[in-house]
Amino acid sequence: xxxxxxxxxxxxxxxxxxxxxxxxxxxxxxxxxxxxxxxxxxxxxxxxxxxxxxxxxxxxxxxxxxxxxxxxxxxxxxxxxxxxxxxxxxxxxxxxxxxxxxxxxxxxxxxxxxxxxxxxxxxxxxxxxxxxxxxxxxxxxxxxxxxxxxxxxxxxxxxxxxxxxxxxxxxxxxxxxxxxxxxxxxxxxxxxxxxxxxxxxxxxxxxxxxxxxxxxxxxxxxxxxxxxxxxxxxxxxxxxxxxxxxxxxxxxxxxxxxxxxxxxxxxxxxxxxxxxxxxxxxxxxxxxxxxxxxxxxxxxxxxxxxxxxxxxxxxxxxxxxxxxxxxxxxxxxxxxxxxxxxxxxxxxxxxxxxxxxxxxxxxxxxxxxxxxxxxxxxxxxxxxxxxxxxxxxxxxxxxxxxxxxxxxxxxxxxxxxxxxxxxxxxxxxxxxxxxxxxxxxxxxxxxxxxxxxxxxxxxxxxxxxxxxxxxxxxxxxxxxxxxxxxxxxxxxxxxxxxxxxxxxxxxxxxxxxxxxxxxxxxxxxxxxxxxxxxxxxxxxxxxxxxxxxxxxxxxxxxxxxxxxxxxxxxxxxxxxxxxxxxxxxxxxxxxxxxxxxx
Length: 598
Known about the structure:
Layout: H1 46-70, H2 75-79, H3 85-96, H4 116-125, H5 131-139, H6 143-155, H7 157-185, H8 195-203, H9 205-237, H10 244-258, H11 264-291, H12 303-307, H13 335-346, H14 352-360, H15 368-394, H16 409-447, H17 455-478, H18 482-514, E1 521-523, E2 528-530, H19 536-544, H20 548-579
Antiparallel strand pairs: 1-2
């Protein structure tokens, strides 16, 4: 690769040919500048990405030090997004004024006139989120707390507590692994925008495609699941007088409007609101469950029915079995039902898939760990107590989501209304990230669509939102079994992004980073990368150098996660086969699946 002398020149390097505006690898021989590279240029090495990442981290630390010396931010500024927003907004406006608004930065031939400062400012401008916003964004999930009681009812006290604890700790470890990779690969020159970007920079194009496809599927399914859960809640609140298809469709239409929020920083207050709503729902359902019987009329969709129908089947006199509990698996002969239940618990830790996207919009990604560990601790303690409490009072009659299973109509409606609001916010967040993944990896890369920071990009965003939510509605409406749907999504997608992929990525990052010796690496003056060796010898040295035990752990962790995912997929498929053996209701009709009166 030729020199990088032009990086210091606003007008580009005079040594370059007339083809300077082309993508690297498509007619251009000499290295130009970062803004002249393809969005995913395979000729850029790990060493170059790592060099610029270190420069960006140094700048962030320097800026953070100046802010600390001039402004003291208290506890409220950490847990309440938007505290001190005036200075943040001023910084954003200052950066916006330095970015060319009349140039589509997605088109390489138009980036030739963009200076290095304008290019890096375009990256800085989207980094506005704080550690406090991260805490609420990570805990903004509707299915996590309300699917956990169902998980305990299918696994029992002992296995449920043990497995949820292990999954919680490992989810935190996975977050740390992703953070370490992000900090070493992201920069203002080459920003990491999704977990697929990490995969590309560590393994290549094939990994990026796999990650992006699977992530897009998961996020779309997340939105679909919430549309259906809200539809069920609305149908129950209306006493099944409103057509079930309309109950679901209304939430897809609501997503058309709420989905217009583009930046994660603006989601901060919505996420904050959603977390407190979820806590209120938990308190309501706990209080009602302690003073009223379960909703016996919905026993056919309970946890006990999935384990063994006899546990929830009324006798000849119409009397239902008493609430029961199990120290171990409720029915060891039906191992698949317990695995399906466990997959509901995994939903609580499904946020790992979004961690990279969250970090990409943080002003100082170093602070991500504060929000992440705080969120994981909150999720573990609060959700665990809630799940155990509900299992203690409702036992095998627990529903998924749990707020559908309380019997007094007035309290049932209150829980449903609150859950619908919270779920819609969560769905908007998932849709926001999902559309960004599709937009950045398809619209921008292949169709040269403008960035979302520009007017035309914002207009395209407005047009894409209804299409995305409509597709999510169709997918969710076609799946009759809510718990079966969530189980297959959890096993195929969530387990991978939360437990399988983080060690897979960190292993490659550690090997490449640890293999670097003194005198090796990227030279910004010449634009060349110097390596003393390549191949298997270098890989083995990178594996054994530095913290080799992290690499050994990553291998064990990766294989264990793969085995767990395989087990979950088997159980989910077996369950869906059983469900589809008989005709089932879906959201294309008017009869609600919760209405067993007819």
